[in-house]
Amino acid sequence: QVRLVESGGGLVQPGGSLKLSCAASGSIFRFALKAWHRQAPGKQRESVAQITGSNNTNYADSVKGRFTISRDNAKNTVYLQMNSLKPEDTAVYYCFSLGYWGQGTQVTVSS
Length: 111
Fold this sequence. Notes:
With 111 residues, the chain is mainly β. It has no helices and eleven strands.
């Protein structure tokens, strides 16, 4: 079965950190481009970060310097380390690869 499963979301205070994980089932994902997107209430889904199979990365301007995307191909997993979180980072975060979406994990930044 081909699927992506996110974990690691939660409630954190402004300035805090969270690390999201996305575990892929299916060997087709192992070296594929992976990405994190997010969707805040009332807003369109937006790209947050991407990582290629050779570990080239790209970030949205709004998260540069605060978020880091990484991958472990042996575990077929992609990560998103989020530091210095802001209330505007509150959203459902989705993993994406090869046309497949995960179910999403909620990140709430609030005091």
